[in-house]
Design a protein that fits this description.
The chain is α+β, with helices and mostly antiparallel strands. The chain has 2 helices and 6 strands; from the N terminus they run ββββααββ. The chain has one domain: GTP cyclohydrolase I, C-terminal domain/NADPH-dependent 7-cyano-7-deazaguanine reductase, N-terminal domain (GTP Cyclohydrolase I, domain 2), CATH 3.30.1130. The strands form 2 sheets. It has a 4-stranded antiparallel beta sheet with strand order 2-3-5-6, covered by helices on one side.
């Protein structure tokens, strides 16, 4: 596997396909460029998903996230693009991507996007005494 930025997302077989469980991946070093000024934008990404048959491979995900470093993109567009491409690759039951962009000119931006597979419903949480 390369150590260069790449748009190639790799997967592996979900080892527990008969069980719904949540995978959370925190990526604190996301960067892209402001499409208006060319200045860098920094964000922390939180990916949460309930896999179906496939899970995203972490090194490939790191190289994929790195590939946005020199691309201009509005926060809303890049967050939706990343979610769409991850969903197309993994076909999860559920996926949420939260992008918390760092302050720029006194303004913070958080973008939250979700995908839910048709017919899938989340299990009810268990509240213990």
């Amino acid at each position: 596997m390369s150590n260069l930025p790449s748009k190639n997302l790799e997967t592996f077989e979900n080892p527990q396909q008969g069980r719904d469980y949540t995978i959370k991946i925190r990526m604190p070093e996301f960067t892209c460029l402001c499409p208006k000024t060319g200045q860098p934008d920094f964000a922390e990404l939180l990916l949460e998903y309930v896999p179906n048959e496939l899970c995203v491979e972490l090194k490939a995900l790191k190289m994929y996230i790195w590939s946005f470093r020199d691309e201009g993109a509005f926060h809303e567009a890049v967050t939706n693009q990343i979610l769409d491409e991850l969903v197309a690759t993994t076909q999860p039951h559920f996926m949420r991507l939260t992008a918390e962009f760092k302050v720029r000119g006194g303004v913070y931006t958080d973008v939250v996007v979700e995908y839910r597979a048709d017919g899938w419903t989340a299990q009810q949480p268990v509240h213990l005494p």
